[in-house]
């Protein structure tokens, strides 16, 4: 039986690749809907980009919902400096013609969890956690029905990518992250510690292009675009494909390894606001609340990703 998921996202080129990977894996994954949140770019663009990706994959029937347009407390911080002004810079794709759903993303999350059997819905969070936190605050009873939350966010050994201490998705809305991490729902976290180990390389990008399809070409162009920023910043040979790690973990969990530890979110300090304080070494007696992934078999990841994208 494929696992039923809701993808909560702020596309972003790597979000787009994650969505495509989910669509390409119907044996393992059934996407019930896509909920957009403000993050990499404002909500008007993230909901549009989600629909562009659906149409690229020929999935015009997919339900896409617009969610929260700003964090719970602070002003929205975006990442056009990485993803370009549209969020999907790198290739020109037509505006979507499929409709945006009329109901709010949070309502969709709440209603879906209420309707489905407990332990059947996995929430895949690829952006700031504003929609999920708002859903949990609106309807606390749904938390116990969540099978698992798999999210891309945070960092420990790799420290920060938007401030010296904080990873972007958590930094954009630390209060939302705190609600989700303290919710009691089963959590699997894909931090920078693991996503920085799945770097694009020239052969890996060309393998995408060599698929010979519109999707292979789009993915190659997207990765070409946003890897320039990370290569310059980190001096690395390529850019991390952050968000596809979330979907890859559902398909091939054996590619990943980590530890079940306590993770707390810093919301107070101006110096380390948005930091994920991960008790990797078990120094405290704080309750373990997350499977914090630390390593990945990167060749296996790219082999699987390229093979799956070739199906679309």
Q: What does this entry show, briefly?
A:
The protein is an alpha/beta fold and 312 residues long.
Structure description:
There is one protein chain. The chain is globular, with a radius of gyration of 18 Å. The longest helix is centred in the last third of the chain and has 21 residues, at 214-234. The chain starts with a strand and ends with a helix. The chain has 312 residues and is an alpha/beta fold. Helix content is 37%, strand content 17%. It has a single domain (3-309), classed as Ribonucleoside hydrolase-like (Inosine-uridine Nucleoside N-ribohydrolase, Chain A, Alpha-Beta Complex). Strands 3-2-1-4-5-6-10-7 form an 8-stranded mixed beta sheet, with helices on both faces. Helix 2 (43-56) links the parallel strand 2 (29-36) and strand 3. The protein contains 12 helices and 10 strands.
Instruction: Give me the secondary-structure category.
Output: alpha/beta
CATH architecture: Alpha-Beta Complex
Please tell me what the overall shape is: globular
Strand content: 15-25%
What topology emerges from the helices and strands here?
Layout: E1 3-9, H1 13-23, E2 29-36, H2 43-56, E3 64-66, H3 80-83, H4 105-115, E4 121-125, H5 130-138, E5 146-152, H6 168-172, H7 174-181, E6 187-190, H8 192-195, H9 202-209, H10 214-234, H11 244-251, E7 256-261, E8 263-265, E9 276-278, E10 290-296, H12 298-309
Parallel strand pairs: 1-2, 1-4, 2-3, 4-5, 5-6, 6-10
Antiparallel strand pairs: 7-10, 8-9
Helix pairs in contact: 1-10, 1-11, 4-5, 5-7, 9-10
